[in-house]
């Protein structure tokens, strides 16, 4: 804590603006940095999936399928443990950059630990630490985007950042498998550590320029811009306008100063007022918000239906079409690639037309494909339906993130980190429970895959009902009832 305090004092005493202030304070650059962090996080999560069972066998362990499942669970456990502490720290001390960098450093350290772990319990500990680092990247990164972005385009920027999530999932498993075959167990970890070092400069270059801690290419939080400059420098500094372009912040005359004050006023309207709360009041307010509870429930549904496929899809493909690991990896790839486009697209639509209709449309359009995946007639039909289902199911993420940002703006006692901690918490529960449900159902039922698809379709259907009642400033059901009442009054 003393180090953070000294760091803040050193930063506040700076007489010259940091290098690259013009572009590092842009929300476009901040979105890129967070997207890179999410890609790094998912690469950490997924790169060991195809290699860990073989490594456990080499170490002499039996029942490697169950042991690998518990390693996945350990990641979720770390995520659950760290979520609200990270959020409370970020909001109470108005910290974004330092927790973000710390999260990536923890990811690097946990990868090294996992790479060198000689026993299983140390692997579990490493995966728990990975979950802790992942929490910092997710919660604080999303809050940082909302801090810097005008509320009119928050969903679009979040959608673009979420493409990093999909990119990490796309690259991780195939890269891990290929590197394992060529270089052995340490190959994937060495690749990841070089990627993390070169792509984000987190381990070697996280502290630069007299304590200006940033992640990636060292981004600057938007509301830190004024504190980095003296009054004269602030008058001549450039800041991003609402379109992301860098414009002159002020000048020597009073008119420029008034313009700067107005710009700051408009920016503050997009940021929740600081009013630190303890954990229980935060949870209480979130539980009393229908929109927050709806978004959290939808995150839980998504976590379950997304993760229950992971342990069961390879077995289903092997049982029905005799697929091997390489073919199964291509099927997973076909399911993930469409998600690179769905989140940015639905984020853009949410900003233009609201979150209510696009969320309901994504759930409705994903529903029939769960039923089609039960059909075992043609593998091409199965892969196509799997890809389309993932396209629409993942499309709800950007609207949900936008919903949570709206909750934070409406309640001055709730911060962005708080609402994204709630999202991270329930998604972590879903992703921890999903593989267990899927694995147990598939192992103990003759028609296990069919049951999993029907269960997922049922959860999506429930989500449709809940979403139509609570999503958006004016939910779909409320709009329809108002339209019916208006038509009835006209006819009467």
UniProtKB/TrEMBL annotation:
GO MF annotation terms: transmembrane transporter activity
TM stretches of this protein: 27-48, 68-88, 100-122, 128-146, 355-372, 379-397, 417-437, 449-470
Cited Pfam families: MFS_1
Xref: InterPro entries: MFS, MFS_dom, MFS_trans_sf, MFS_Vesicular_Transporter, Tet-R_TetA/multi-R_MdtG-like
Stored SUPFAM superfamilies: MFS general substrate transporter
Cell compartments where the protein resides: Membrane
Region listing for Disordered, in residue ranges: 228-273
Main location: membrane
Keyword annotations: Membrane, Transmembrane, Transmembrane helix, Transport
Gene Ontology cellular component terms for the protein in this record: membrane
Regions of compositional bias (Basic and acidic residues) in chain numbering: 252-273
Stretches assigned to the Major facilitator superfamily (MFS) profile domain: 30-475
Topology of the protein relative to the lipid bilayer: Multi-pass membrane protein
Family statement drawn from the similarity comment of this UniProt entry: Belongs to the major facilitator superfamily. Vesicular transporter family.
Protein name (record): Major facilitator superfamily (MFS) profile domain-containing protein
Organism: Tetrapyrgos nigripes
